[in-house]
């Protein structure tokens, strides 16, 4: 039975809304006793009219002095849902809040501002956020002066913003992905006007450099580009994140150099589609391969990147990654399906054959590479034979792990209007078979590592046992081994002794580590 689609129409009925005022700064409306100041709201039609407007790069992004006192003596919590891009946005949000004087807390009762940085990729992510808002409603009643905000990808969707305005009048602040840098001004507006403040830009803004970031741990995210121009039929990202726009190479390189100076051990370059980096430059010919070649020369031990699209993975990039050094031997390469017919309906713009050819080139250039992927099963119209093609591709490539999903429609995407005609039990069965195949490859690859000595970046104590440390290899494999907590933050050599499905066990190689004690 096809899943019933949500009825969003009830969130669009604003017949009981009263417009109180309207001017060049937006409009103020009243719904159910709640005044809402709409500076700008999401508009899908507008966000799809994408012209290559001149994107400006703004460097002068200091928080004004009068906003640096607002949070003095107050506390904040930021809850993050979704991908690394959201994690990275949250680092910026926390950085700005701390520059405004706010301090972090984990105690909701102590918090003066709580922000939910949301994800729109799957419906269950959305349901989670609305569930969380339900819990926070009680807290808001007890503490009416607390500011409660929703930001991130969900805020870029019209139906979500309308639903918040109609049903969640206790929310104070709604802003999107293109205007994170406006947060200090929006907080001021929400605090002083006592209205719900909505500012969501449908068109992506400029590239904002030099925003503060609050980074924790040994690893840092570095955004190299924003947006996506691929328009896969199941994906809402081009609507929520806008068109592709790359940061200038000198700005990315300066940020990576600074992270190296601060002692970070690993960076991950981020983009909705990192290997399209530079394609929007009109004044220079400089792509992702060039950027990786330049970052390779910076003294930071490990460099990763995510997420890449097979269509933009060119030979130059393969050649640069083959040089090794601090460029690690792990590539996340989403395939989504092994069937050409399904790939075509998904709008992926490559074939099974071109994907396998790319894998062959990568394996030739980086013999010990570990490949991971994303796969969707049960896409509209997927037959048993087409699923078998996906399974065959998985077995041919031998992925070490994969993010696997049952297809679920996202409102606002082309696939959402296709007939979702694969029965749920068939989707579940396919997912189980796929996961079993991937588990087998994962365990096999771990078995082959027995006896090998690998370099592990020690991240912390294992969740279940304080005498066991956990860390990751260059290929991003999780390793558990016994050791003292003074090793956290350093690289150690570990001999692999045992293979599990999702992690490996090892023991420290004492003689190899004596010269290797790098402090964090």
UniProtKB/TrEMBL annotation:
Q: Name the positions where [4Fe-4S] cluster 2 binds.
A: 228, 232, 235
Write down the chemical reaction(s) this protein catalyses: N(6)-dimethylallyladenosine(37) in tRNA + (sulfur carrier)-SH + AH2 + 2 S-adenosyl-L-methionine = 2-methylsulfanyl-N(6)-dimethylallyladenosine(37) in tRNA + (sulfur carrier)-H + 5'-deoxyadenosine + L-methionine + A + S-adenosyl-L-homocysteine + 2 H(+)
Can you provide one Gene Ontology molecular function annotated for this UniProt record? metal ion binding
Q: Where is the Radical SAM core domain?
A: 214-444
> Is the Transmembrane keyword given for this protein?
no
InterPro entries given in the database record: Elp3/MiaA/NifB-like_rSAM (IPR006638), Methylthiotransferase (IPR005839), Methylthiotransferase_CS (IPR020612), Methylthiotransferase_N (IPR013848), Methylthiotransferase_N_sf (IPR038135), MiaB_methiolase (IPR006463), rSAM (IPR007197), rSAM_horseshoe (IPR023404)
Q: What's noted on cofactor binding?
A: Binds 2 [4Fe-4S] clusters. One cluster is coordinated with 3 cysteines and an exchangeable S-adenosyl-L-methionine.
Please tell me where [4Fe-4S] cluster 1 binds in this chain: 83, 119, 153
List UniProt keywords, sorted A-Z: 4Fe-4S, Cytoplasm, Iron, Iron-sulfur, Metal-binding, S-adenosyl-L-methionine, Transferase, tRNA processing
Q: What is its main location?
A: cytoplasm
Which SUPFAM superfamilies does the UniProt record give? Radical SAM enzymes
Cofactor(s) needed, names only, are: [4Fe-4S] cluster
Q: So what EC number does this one have?
A: 2.8.4.3
Can you cite an annotated GO cellular component?
cytosol
**KW 4Fe-4S (keyword) present:** yes
The enzyme class is transferase
User: Could you describe the subunit structure of this protein?
Assistant: Monomer.
Q: State the protein's purpose.
A: Catalyzes the methylthiolation of N6-(dimethylallyl)adenosine (i(6)A), leading to the formation of 2-methylthio-N6-(dimethylallyl)adenosine (ms(2)i(6)A) at position 37 in tRNAs that read codons beginning with uridine.
Its recorded name reads tRNA-2-methylthio-N(6)-dimethylallyladenosine synthase
| Species this protein is from | Paenibacillus azoreducens
């Amino acid at each position: 039975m096809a899943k019933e689609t949500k009825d969003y129409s009830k969130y669009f009925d604003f017949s009981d809304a009263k417009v109180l005022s309207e001017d060049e700064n937006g409009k103020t409306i009243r719904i159910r006793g709640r005044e809402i100041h709409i500076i700008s709201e999401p508009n899908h039609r507008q966000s799809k009219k994408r012209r290559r407007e001149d994107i400006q790069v703004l460097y002068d992004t200091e928080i004004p002095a009068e906003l640096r006192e607002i949070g003095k003596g107050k506390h904040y919590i930021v809850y993050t849902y979704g991908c690394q891009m959201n994690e990275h946005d949250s680092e910026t949000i926390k950085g700005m809040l701390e520059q405004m004087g706010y301090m972090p807390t984990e105690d909701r009762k102590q918090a003066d501002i709580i922000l939910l940085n949301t994800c729109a990729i799957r419906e269950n992510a959305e349901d989670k956020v609305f569930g969380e808002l339900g819990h926070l409603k009680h807290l808001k009643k007890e503490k009416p002066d607390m500011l409660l905000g929703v930001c991130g990808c969900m805020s870029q969707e019209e139906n979500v913003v309308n639903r918040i305005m109609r049903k969640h009048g206790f929310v104070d602040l709604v802003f999107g992905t293109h205007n994170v840098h406006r947060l200090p001004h929006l907080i001021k507006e929400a605090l002083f006007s006592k209205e719900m403040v909505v500012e969501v830009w449908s068109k992506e803004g400029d590239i904002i450099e030099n925003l503060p970031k609050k980074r924790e741990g040994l690893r840092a995210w570095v955004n190299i580009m924003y947006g996506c121009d691929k328009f896969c039929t199941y994906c809402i990202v081009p609507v929520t994140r806008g068109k592709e726009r790359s940061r200038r190479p000198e700005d990315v390189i300066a940020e990576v150099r600074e992270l190296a100076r601060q002692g970070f051990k690993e960076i991950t370059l981020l983009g909705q589609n990192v290997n399209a980096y530079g394609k929007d430059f009109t004044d220079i010919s400089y792509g992702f391969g060039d950027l990786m070649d330049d970052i390779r020369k910076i003294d930071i031990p490990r460099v990763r990147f995510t997420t890449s699209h097979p269509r933009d993975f060119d030979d130059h990039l393969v050649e640069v990654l083959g040089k090794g050094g601090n460029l690690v031997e792990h590539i996340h390469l989403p395939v989504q399906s092994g069937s050409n017919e399904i790939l075509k309906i998904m709008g992926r713009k490559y074939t099974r054959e071109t994907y396998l050819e790319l894998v062959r080139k990568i394996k030739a250039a980086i013999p010990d590479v570990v490949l991971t992927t994303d796969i969707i099963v049960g896409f509209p119209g997927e037959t048993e034979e087409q699923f078998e093609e996906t399974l065959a591709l998985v077995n041919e490539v031998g992925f070490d792990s994969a993010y696997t999903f049952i297809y679920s429609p996202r409102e606002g995407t082309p696939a959402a209007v296709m007939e979702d005609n694969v029965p749920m039990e068939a989707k579940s069965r396919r997912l189980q078979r796929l996961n079993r195949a991937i588990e087998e490859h994962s365990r096999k690859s771990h078995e082959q590592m027995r006896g090998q000595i690998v370099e592990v970046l020690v991240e912390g104590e294992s969740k279940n046992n304080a005498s066991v440390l956990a860390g990751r290899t260059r290929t991003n494999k999780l390793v558990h081994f016994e050791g003292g907590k003074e090793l956290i933050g350093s690289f150690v050599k570990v001999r692999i002794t045992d293979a599990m499905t999702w992690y490996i066990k090892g023991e420290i190689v004492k003689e190899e580590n004596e010269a290797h004690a790098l402090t964090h």
